[in-house]
Amino acid sequence: xxxxxxxxxxxxxxxxxxxxxxxxxxxxxxxxxxxxxxxxxxxxxxxxxxxxxxxxxxxxxxxxxxxxxxxxxxxxxxxxxxxxxxx
Length: 87
What we know:
By secondary structure, the chain is of the alpha+beta class. The chain has one domain: Beta-grasp domain (Ubiquitin-like (UB roll), Roll), CATH 3.10.20.30. The protein is built from two helices and five strands, in the order E-H-E-H-E-E-E. The radius of gyration is 12 Å and the shape is globular. It starts with 8 loop residues before the first strand and ends in a 6-residue tail after the last strand.
């Protein structure tokens, strides 16, 4: 996947709870053509086999909760949170 202008950007992905277990790491630096948080989630889901549907998960960009369609920029830190079980 390439950005609209065909370029790649560098971002940091941080994984929490079961996502951290599935990815085998808490943090990784990525070079991506993803333009939104949703596109990046799809990319890492394919790479790491994340099973949860995006509609049940949360994302934050640079420590602020964000919508999945928020554009990504060079240097962003994107945090992925799986669904939380209540109890």
